[in-house]
Amino acid sequence: MASSRPASSPGAIPRPDEIYDPVARALDRIGDKWTLVLVRHLLSGPIGFQELRKRTGIAPRVLSARLRELQADAYVTTVPDGARSLYAVTERGRDLEPVIASLAHWYVLHAVRDLEIDTRRFTATVPQSILEVLPFIVRDETARDADVTFEIRLEGTGGGVWTVHVKDGHCSVVRGFAEHADVRYTADARIWCGVALGRIDARDAARRGDLKKDGGPEAMDHYFHQISRPAPDAPEGREERSPE
Q1: Residues 133 and 81 in one domain
Q2: Does residue 236 belong to any structural domain of this protein?
Q3: Phi and psi (nearest 5°) for 180?
Q4: Domain check: are 123 and 207 in the same one?
Q5: What is the 3-state secondary structure (H, E, C) of 136-177?
Q6: Are residues 125 and 77 in the same domain?
Q7: N or C, which end of the chain has less CB nearby within 10 Å?
Q8: This prediction's pTM
């Protein structure tokens, strides 16, 4: 059906919504500051409201409003968890995963090198936040033929146990002990995040016994783009440069 809207006069500047531009029109729907952030966190599984607040730092009123909008647009739903409800991503929301992965990949590649972002400023980061983005920042050239399993054991606030499996260019991260770990890292959660974000030198942490590595020679930094700038005297590929 033809539009009843009068055509723009020759030479007139059109309104943005009169132009077919897939990128612009997609951002009309998902371009809100928090949409992709919330979907990204929910990709790993259902999460409660307070946990989302802790992970994102979003003010409660803003978070409530954004979650209602995401539910109305069918990107997010709620699922029962005993007496409470958790937020979960829908299939429609999961379709945004490639977009989220591309954004994360772009940021990690360019934040340190081109934008000169000092990752040491992210002082409230917890291990979960770092580990969940690993599938988005795999180094294709080194992970393409890999089949290696890392177990991450972290103590203290934000700690836990995670299994990171890199195989054929893909990475999976799940909570829990590995059935068979090729390499095991053990550290305090604060120390591990400090190393990953460049606040703590991994070699110093290892010498002090704050960061322990057991198992084979494989190192995680061989398979992932680094999220922090290496120390000037740390050569590329050095095994203990970073735990992530």
Answers
A1: no
A2: no
A3: -145, 110
A4: yes
A5: HCECHHHHCCCEEEEEEEEECCCCEEEEEEEECCEEEEEECC
A6: no
A7: N
A8: 0.80
Tell me the two tokens of residue 134: 């690993």
Convert the pLDDT of each residue in 187-209 to its tens digit.
999 999 988 888 888 889 999 99
Distance CA 128, CA 148 (A): 20
Instruction: Give the amino acid at 8.
Output: S
Q: What is the C-alpha separation between 100 and 39, in angstroms, rounded?
A: 9
DSSP state of 120: G
Tell me which residue has tokens 């000037």: 232
Long-range pairs, 168-176, Cβ under 8 A, ≥24: 168/143, 168/144, 169/138, 169/140, 169/143, 169/144, 170/135, 170/138, 170/143, 171/134, 171/135, 171/138, 171/143, 171/223, 171/224, 172/135, 173/44, 173/131, 173/132, 173/134, 173/135
Domain of 75? 19-94
Regarding whether 89 and 132 lie in a shared domain, the answer is no
DSSP reduced 3-state for 88: strand
Q: What is the pLDDT of residues 175-191, one digit of tens each?
A: 999 999 999 999 999 99
Largest CA-CA distance found in the chain, in angstroms, rounded: 73
